[in-house]
């Protein structure tokens, strides 16, 4: 019994002395594996597969395009909305069409120019007031549609980026993870320190896809609301001009 007890004590002591060595060896394996991989976003991009790199570069360019559209379209919408609001205020405050046309705030208004052009073309139809208003309204409808399309120009790219960027990023991730599994099969190891960098590089594509898609969707919705405000101003201005024409016709005055 004493010999068995002595043997058990020796065995336990040998295991305890070997445990720290095993732990050190495992930690050493991890320490050796990780320094070979730069797990910063730039390091993961540089270490990624060619297809994943192409996907990330494409998504980065799409993100740059999104912010470019934001800056350019914001300036355009701001200037056009300001000019249209000033034109509406001038027309709404005028008593006659000639008075509104003489205001510098309406000088460049396509609605005012269209109304004056139709009045000039209809100068020999003195007794056709309803027909005149119908023709002017027809011109206004086409101008409103054209101005609305102009304000939406460029925002279609935002919709496309917002809808497709997550799936493009997912494609890069699937491709990268597929290569990681191929590497696992080739190395015949499932050590996390070995396979994690490849998986992280693949997931980077999905992250970049979301970074490109989310702002694109938010900015597109913002421009949709701002364009609706602008189109309402255009519609209000056309209605105000039609009121002036109707007043002039009631007075027996033609512009």
Task: Describe this protein with a few key phrases.
single chain, 255 residues, mainly alpha, 85% helix, disordered N terminus
Shape, per Cα inertia axes:
rod-shaped
**Beta-strand fraction estimate:** under 5%
Gyration radius, rounded: 35 Å
DSSP strand tally: 0
Low-pLDDT ranges: 1-35
What does this structure look like?
The chain has 255 residues and is mainly α. It contains eight helices and no strands. It is rod-shaped and about 95 Å long.
Write a brief structural summary.
The chain has 255 residues and is mostly helical. It has helices spanning 2-33, 41-47, 50-93, 97-102, 110-121, 129-152, 155-187, 192-251.
How would the blueprint of this fold be written?
Blueprint: H1 2-33, H2 41-47, H3 50-93, H4 97-102, H5 110-121, H6 129-152, H7 155-187, H8 192-251
Helix pairs in contact: 2-8, 3-7, 3-8, 5-6, 6-8, 7-8
